[in-house]
Structure formats: C-alpha cells, structure tokens
Design goal:
The protein is mainly β and about 230 residues long. It folds into two domains: about 120 residues, Immunoglobulins (Immunoglobulin-like), CATH 2.60.40; about 100 residues, Immunoglobulin-like (Sandwich). Strands 1, 2, 4, 5, 7 and 9 form a six-stranded antiparallel sheet that branches. The chain is elongated and about 60 Å long. The termini are far apart.
Length: about 230
C-alpha cells in the first residue's frame, strides 16, 4: 500500500475548503493481486481511501492514470463512499512491462499517490530463470555463536524481471539451521533481498521454489564447526 503527498494550495484558492489552509488530504492505493499477466489473469482489483484531516472523506472524486499505456482502469474516475473508500479495476492490455498507476484527488490540495504493477508473460513458464546469491557462501558455527549468510536473488521470465512472484525456500535438513523467512515476494524489478540463513552444524542445500513458474533452484552453503 502506498501513501503520498498533498500539494499546498496557496497558489489556487478557488474553493472555501482551502481558505484558510486548514485541510490536508491524503490518499492510499493498493492492488490485489500486485501483479498481472498479459493474458488470462490480466486483472487486478484496486482499492484505497481518501482522508481529509485524518477523517474519511465522503463523495470525493478520485481519478486514475496509467503510464506507460499498457492497460486501462475501469472506471477512470470514482467517487468515495461515506467511509472514504473507493474501488476500481486495472486490466492489462499489453506487455510485458511495469506500469505506474496514479490515483489523484483533483481538489484544491490535489492529493496523489502511485503504485507499480508488473505485467508478466505468464504463458511461458519454462523460460523462467533465477539468479540466487548467498553472502557469504561459506560460513562457520560452533553451535552456540553462529555466523549468518544473507540470501538474495532475482527472478527473470524470458530474460525480463518478474515482479510480484512468490518465492518459497526450504532446507534439505531443517536441523542444521534456520531461515528468517520461508516465503518472499519479488519487487517490481524481480529482486528479493534479506533472507537470512543461520546455521547450527553440518552443511545444507537451500532450495528455492517459485510457485508461479514451478521453477526449482538449489545451491549449497558450506558450514564448518569451530573447534
């Protein structure tokens, strides 16, 4: 979810709400799911809320824009409910790529917010690849004062970054260490970061599985015992 700025309206005082400058309008926006496909699953549902001075804003107009022109929003403008909420639908019409979807309250202080929505080519999962790194890839532990390794990587589909992909991790032997998380989602550039492996003893293969593409990748972190 994203929350953004509102503009100062001292340059344009054409409505009573802005004179004097006592209002502050904010807007939030989210997409579910956060990524779409070029075909078939090419729809995501948009939702958000408009607040004026921290209170839900009833009957505020919210307008949408998409850049670049790889999809459409239906409708292009909505009116908030008594709770300040609004909904719309984004439909991808082209791609792959990443669109910036902007929601704006065209009122005096012109609150605006933007989110990025990756559009992936989901029809060719066999061409998915993953780049996986561990830093460091050799760590030592005496069983009581362990070192750690930070895992990061990138998911590519047909050579293009795949944002919004769910990545699952597993250990071939859970008794030799722990992971800080077993599930992570790639950012709009297809990257994931800061998965920490903490060893106890032995050595381990860490497997990376992307549910979206059924792609499995494994690598080994070497672990030695400190005597």
């Amino acid at each position: 979810m994203s929350s953004y700025r509102n503009r100062n309206c001292d340059y344009d005082c054409d409505c009573s709400r802005c004179c004097p400058q006592t209002t502050r309008t904010t807007i939030t926006l989210a997409a579910n799911p956060p990524t779409v496909c070029i075909e078939n699953n090419n729809t995501t549902f948009l939702s958000g809320q408009v607040l004026v001075n921290g209170q839900p804003a009833n009957r505020e107009i919210v307008e949408f824009s998409v850049n670049p022109n790889l999809g459409i929003v239906i409708p292009l403008a909505v009116i908030t409910t008594s709770s300040g909420n609004f909904t719309a639908v984004f439909i991808a019409t082209n791609g792959p790529g990443i669109v910036t979807l902007t929601a704006t309250v065209p009122d005096c202080d012109r609150a605006t917010t933007s989110i990025q929505i990756p559009i992936n080519n989901c029809q060719q999962p066999s061409n998915a690849t993953i780049i996986l790194n561990a830093n460091p890839n050799g760590i030592c532990s005496n069983g009581s004062v362990p070192s750690t390794s930070t895992i990061s990587g990138q998911v590519l589909v047909n050579g293009q970054p795949a944002g919004g992909v769910t990545v699952n991790f597993s250990l071939n032997n859970p008794s030799i260490g722990t992971l800080s998380t077993f599930t992570i989602t790639t950012d709009p550039s297809g990257n994931f970061f800061d998965v920490t492996f903490t060893p106890t003893k032995g050595s381990s293969n860490i497997s990376n599985i992307s549910n979206d593409f059924c792609f499995i990748f494994s690598f080994q972190i070497r672990i030695c015992s400190i005597k």
